[in-house]
Amino acid sequence: MRLVVFTMSNEPRRFSFQDSLEEILGSTNVYFQPPENVKLIFPAIIYTKRAGDYRYADNRSYTRIQGYDVMVISKDPDFVDTLDIPDRFPMCRFDRHFVSDNLNHDVFVIYY
Q: Which of 56, 69, 108, 109 is most buried, most CB within 10 Å of its CB?
């Protein structure tokens, strides 16, 4: 019987991801799954977890990369173009753009 030990190794990785997003934005207005009562300051980045990417061998998962939905919110419709998000994350794709409450939302899917 093989013993599998689970660690909290994703937490430091998420914190590193947060630091990278703050560096890209140039401020600390980066929020991970913020509750509704948090007052956001714009421009801002909100990110949430999504399904990870698994690689399999010998009928087992041998690696997993965490996925995130990353939303850049700004009043300026061209603000996201000033950020180098796709250049900073090799496993990144632009998902969609929409406007809500007169704010521009650009959503990326990033595996980190």
A: 108
Cα separations in angstroms, 93 against 27, 56, 58 = 23, 23, 30
Q: What is the pLDDT of residue 37?
A: 94
CATH of 10-111, one of 3.30.2000, 3.80.10, 3.90.210, 4.10.410: 3.30.2000
DSSP of 37-85: TSPP-SSEEEEEEEEEEEEEETTEEEEEEEEEEEEEEESSTTGGGGS-H
For tokens 């909100």, what's the residue? 46
Domain boundaries, the chain: 10-111
Q: Summarize pLDDT for 86-102 with one digit per residue, the tens.
A: 999 999 999 999 999 99
d(CA 76, CA 17): 24
* Cα 25 to Cα 5, 84, 97, distances in angstroms: 36, 9, 18
Q: What does the block give as tokens for 36?
A: 């509704």
